[in-house]
Every structure is written in structure tokens, then in C-alpha cells.
Amino acid sequence: MSSFPHFLVMPYPILGHMNPLLQFSQVLATRGCKITFLITEFNQKRMKGEIEHLGEHMKFVTLPDGLDPEDDRSDQSKILSLRRTMPSKLHKLIQDINALECDNKITCIVVSKNIGWALEVGHELGIKGALLWPASATSFASFQSIPKLIDEGIIDPQTGLPTRKQEIQLLPNSPMMDTAKLPWCSLGKNFFLHMVQDTQSLKLGEWWLCNTTCDLEPGALAMSPRLLPIGPLMQTDTNKSSFWREDPTCLNWLDQFPPQSVVYVSFGSLAVMDPNQFKELAIGLDLLNKPFLWVVRPSNDHNKVKNAYPNEFHGSKGKIISWAPQKKILNHPSIACFITHCGWNSIIEGVCGGIPFLCWPFFSDQFINKSYICDVWKVGMGLDKDENGLISKGEIRKKVEQLLGNEDIKVRSLKLMELMVDNSAEEGQSSKNLEKFINWAKG
Ligand code: UDP
């Protein structure tokens, strides 16, 4: 029997979950743990097998996701149905692996959210489980608070929507939150009901690991001793886990500019922008009269919205790419600020680069994340919508100028970056938590 634990790591198959779980797996692998990383057959094909060379302690296995080949994998309502066919296949896969690896059987399953059923499968087989929550500890705490919010009549038990307009403070030391911006409110009734069930299953996880630090979210982390901050997860050699091909030329392009002079614009892997808003953004970027690096993902056949650049857009100061090596960009000295959708991974990456943010949240936990940036850490500003519900070109220009002229925000961004570095240093809190977790898995 090996003295190093063998982890089966299984992300919900979207990029914002795969990336942190892959990075976490790499951290475990560098500490001698064995990793079997499970991805769907569809994603394996999509990534053209590139992630399968990430290290000697990491092995990749696949299972079918049970969807039709033409189904849209960016449609959350479709991929939530993995539960229909995958649990029995997972059960068999674990038994097969353990039959082959009698000396180093799977000792622990680590999952991301939305697939709590995988912990149930592990539980049936007598295997320990843990959750790596791919978002903030605060958003985890908000999902855990659902029964209390229902009991107190704050949200409707069937839809999750607020019963009336109000602001609440979910946890001590966390920002006030408009109940209409609770993370499930923008995702529909079915997603809410799914999350209620999933939150129950995830309780089978003995640890709730989060890609955060004790300085970023002390209030939320105090909710339970099972919440273990192990962030920031920042390995940079997992770029190959992208669904789109990265454009490496933008790094050379950035080299020509002075420090803190380029505006980086990216909205992650899922957010889809309305065509009128897209035009407004394009013209707003031109108006900046500054270099900008803008990620515009290629539209796919499922993506009904085809964004067209307005005629008056010239983009002469900018570079538009379809997918960026984002972590490297956010560590490039030329970057001045980050216009972001406030996805948690993007935020952690930006904080680690000491970059000020301009917040443009689209849905789910992105609204709470914005509150942390603007109201708690004070390392950024929000973009406000006009009477037509659009973030206008003038607003974009005004806020970029305000942000870049704000020395206090710059100083706080750099201080926050230092705290992140301290956490992952050898004696840092996140490193100690990681050690504690590995020792638990060995036992
Ligand atoms: N990302 C990237 N290149 C891009 C845009 C995004 O590599 O051009 C990565 C980014 O570094 C992050 C992930 O995609 O790790 C997006 O995750 P996030 O939680 O920010 O947002 P989501 O895509 O889940 O909405």
C-alpha cells in the first residue's frame, strides 16, 4: 500500500471548474500524490488530448457525459443532466481502477460543485470525499444558507427568488447583498432546485476546499471549520486546458508598452454579450485613446448572438484575440487594469497580479464578487448601466480614467497581492491547510 494518497479528481465539465481542479491536482501531484483526473469524452476531444501530458503523477480517464453529440455544452440546463447516466458509470470506473491498482487504490474523491452525486458514489464505495468549490467561500456560504433564507421567508422555496426587495448581510464581515442578486436568482428555477439537492450531497465532502485565502474572506470562512482556504491556485502550465486556442502573440505585443498602460478586457468562458452592448463596448474602447487587449471568444453554432463590430469602430490602438493566456497577461507589467465579468478565477488571477478591476458582472456569484472588489477590498470600481440597461461608451471611458487616476486603489491592489503571495509561501496559511488536507487523505 502506497503512503501517498490516490485522488480521483472530477470537475463539473466547464472551464471555470476544470481549471481550478487541474491546478489543484498539479499541486497535489508535486507533493507526491497520485491523481486520476476524470473528464468527459466530449471535453477530451475538444482539448485534443493536450492536457494529458501534465505530469508523471497525473493520469487522465474519461467517461461519456450522456448527452447527444450536437447538444450545447454551454447550456447549463443540459449539462446538469449528467446525473442521469454518469453515476453508475462512475461506480464501475472506480471499481475497475481499484481492481487494477490493488497497491494504490483511490483513497479520496475530489469534486467541484454541481456533481455532488459523485460524492454519493464514493460514499457507497467507502471512499472519502472532499469538495473543491470553484468560486468564493462567500458564494458557498450563500448556498448553504438556502434553508435558513427559506425559513425566514426571505426567498421562495420553489424558485429561490426573493419574496420582497431587501438587502441582507448573509454573514458577519461580508458585504450587504440585494436579495435579487443572490447567485441562483439569475439562473432559473430548475437550477435553484438542482442546487438545493446538490448542496445536500456536497455535505458528504469532509472538507470544503476553496480557492481563496483567509485574508480575502474571513467572514465566510468562519462559517464552518470544514471550509479550508487553499488559494491562490496559480500554476501557469495548465494553459492547455482551454477549450479555445490561446493567442501567444499578445504577450510580445504587450512588451512594447510602458508599465501600467494597457487595458485588458475579458469576460471569461461563458458570458454572452448583447449585440448593442458589444457595439457600445467597442466604441468605448476606441474612445479610451489607450492600448487595449480585448478577448472576443469565437461564436459557435449554438451561440445565437453574433457580435458585429460597429462601422465606426477602428480599434487601431487595440489588439483583439479569441482567447488569452490570461494568467500571464495579468502578470505582465504593461497591464493597467482589468475590465472583467467578475468570475472568481479571473478575480483571483487579477488579485495575484496586483491589478485594479473594473467590474462588469453578468450573472450568478459575479455580483457578490463585484461587492468584494468594490466595497470590501476596495481594489476596483463598478460600471453602471444607463436608463436603457446598457453600459455606455461614455461610462466605460469615464470609469477607466477614474480608475487609472486612483492611487489608493493601486496601492491597495499591490498590498492585496502581497497577502496572496504570503498565503502560498511555505509557512503561509494556505500551504498549511494543504498539508493538513493531504495528511487527512493519507489517514
Ligand atoms: N481565461 C483564459 N483566457 C481568456 C479568458 C479566460 O485563460 O481569454 C481563463 C481565466 O484565466 C480563468 C477562466 O478562463 O481561469 C475563467 O474562469 P472564471 O471563473 O473567471 O469565469 P467563467 O468562465 O467560469 O465565467
Question: Can you lay out the helices and strands and say which pair or pack?
Answer:
Elements: E1 6-10, H1 15-30, E2 34-40, H2 41-46, E3 58-63, H3 76-79, H4 86-100, E4 108-111, H5 117-124, E5 128-133, H6 137-144, H7 146-151, E6 167-168, E7 177-178, H8 189-202, E8 207-210, H9 218-221, E9 227-229, H10 249-255, E10 262-266, H11 275-288, E11 292-295, E12 318-321, H12 326-330, E13 335-340, H13 344-352, E14 357-359, H14 366-376, E15 380-382, H15 393-404, H16 407-424, H17 429-442
Parallel strand pairs: 1-2, 1-4, 2-3, 4-5, 5-8, 8-9, 10-11, 10-13, 11-12, 13-14, 14-15
Antiparallel strand pairs: 6-7
Helix pairs in contact: 4-5, 11-15
Plain-language structure description:
- The chain has 443 residues and is of the alpha/beta class.
- It folds into 2 domains: 6-237 and 424-442, 3-Layer(aba) Sandwich (Rossmann fold); 249-405, 3-Layer(aba) Sandwich (Rossmann fold), CATH 3.40.50.
- The chain has 17 helices and 15 strands.
- The strands form 3 sheets. It has a 7-stranded parallel sheet, sandwiched between helices.
- A hairpin with an 8-residue loop joins strand 6 (167-168) and strand 7.
- Helix 4 crosses helix 5 and helix 11 (275-288) packs across helix 15 (393-404).
- It is globular and about 65 Å long.
- It starts with 5 loop residues before the first strand and ends with a helix.
- The model has no long low-confidence stretch (mean pLDDT 93).
